[in-house]
Amino acid sequence: VWTRLKEAKEKVDEATLARDQVLARESGLEKELALMRQKALDLQADCQQTLSAELKSLQEANAKELAAHQHEVDTLEEKVAVMESDLSLARRDIRTLEAEKATLQQAITSSHRADSDSEIRLMEAERSRDIAEERAASNQRAAQLAAQEWERERSHLVAVAQESEQRLQQSSSSETAYRSETRHLQERLDLVEKALRTSKREKTEGMVPERALRGASGDLASAMAQSLQREREQSQKEAEIQLHALAQRLEQAIETQRKSAEDSETMLASKDKMLAKYREEARQATLHLQKVAGEMQTAVEVADRRAKQAEAETKALRSSIEAFQEDALSWKQAEKSLVPRCEKAEKQVVALSAQAKELVKSEEELMKNRQELNAALDRSRLDQSRLDRKLQAANQKADQLRRQLETAHMSSLKSYPHVGSRKSQRTDATKKLPQVDIGGVQPKSDPDTDE
Question: What is the mean pLDDT of the chain?
Answer without folding.
Answer: 64
